[in-house]
Amino acid sequence: METVALIVAGGRGVRAGDGIPKQYRPLGGIPLLRHTISRFAEHPAVDAICVVIHPDDAALYAESAAGFDLLPPVHGGQQRQDSVRNGLECLRQLNPGNVLIHDAARPFVSAETISRVIETLSDTQPAALAAVPVSDTLKRADGTAMVTGTVDRTGLWRAQTPQAFRYAAILAAHQAVTGQNLTDDAAVAEAAGLPVQLVPGNPDNIKVTMPEDFSRGERQLAAQNAGGEYRTATGFDVHPFETGDHVMLCGIKIPHDHGLAGHSDSDVGLHALTDALLGTIGAGDIGSHFPPSDPQWRGVDSAVFLAHAAKLVADAGAKLRHVDLTLICEAPKVGPHRETMRNRLAEILDLSIDRVSVKATTTDGLGFLGRREGIAAQAAATVVFP
Q: pLDDT tens digits, residue range 240-282?
């Protein structure tokens, strides 16, 4: 194995404010760590990914990393340096040629930056780090915040991650400086006498540290998503009427002089939406995930199906942006229940209600729907891949 990415996610992120550790907080509705993992998972030169986590964060990590093919997570130590060393030592069996060490809190690292640090490594160049030159004027101040001088910024750079190393060299360097408190892995390499090559980073590769950084990250993500890959897919379903006293439509029980025949609770609206979501990621149809022949799904709430499809979309790295549903029937009347339906769909899909559309129409008495023999539904869903 040539190159492994080691993502460091074991910190508590106290400067980011109260709440769960920052690496698991949502950015654009997706855990920050998941954004970071996806950058390396999508890079063709990265052969494997290992994440260093805090022992208390197993459940948060499992949710954030769901669907990715990753190496088992490694528990971190008291300090970041300890966490990295633990991660490096757990890679002994793989013995990769290169290792990229990256902060989980940098979710905007570009493929070009990853490529540059990898390409810089060689047997004679064991360490490389992404960095950007300091462009602001730097001032030195005393304890009262009074300026005492201007710092010459010539030759000054802001270090970023990933920092790339020949694996054997950085492992030996970390083991040699155990007990010292160094600020990053390049400093570890320097302390061990390894030459470190600077390569151009990217100003967009920000580190999310303070609460306001999440707002900046949201704006940056929105700008990136404006050029992302959008996908729209449709779904269609129909169920005939049978003896009964109600129908389930969009998760709502509506009194009616007939019921709907079919497996589960026969919610034609949720079934059509489920197929639309599955279609956006090429994941088959509702029957392939919940076979009608399987008795465990008989009479089940169809919200289970829709929530499953939504999770698969999220696991694929996509963000659900909008759903649109048209119910086709002569009766029952949908209008009185429309807003309740929209609220229920928004709840299942974790969407704001303005991203949920429910409409109804008839066939003006034509066909089996016009003869009041059943209900049909047509759905569309739109997702975006950052």
A: 999 999 999 999 999 999 989 988 999 999 999 999 999 999 9
19 and 64 housed in the same domain: yes
Tell me the HSE value of 308 on the side-chain side, using a 13 A CA sphere.
17
Side-chain half-sphere of 110: how many Cα atoms within 13 Å? 13
Kind and range of the H or E element at 377? strand 374-385
* Residue 84 structural domain: 3-225
Judgement on whether residues 156 and 34 belong to the same structural domain of the protein: yes
Phi, psi of 265 (to 5 degrees): -95, 10
pTM of the predicted model over 0.90:
no
Say if residue 94 is in the same domain as residue 211.
Answer: yes
Q: Give the DSSP per-residue string, 160-220.
A: EEEEEEEHHHHHHHHHHTTT---SSHHHHHHHTT---EEEE--TT-----SHHHHHHHHHH
CATH number at residue 283: 3.30.1330.50
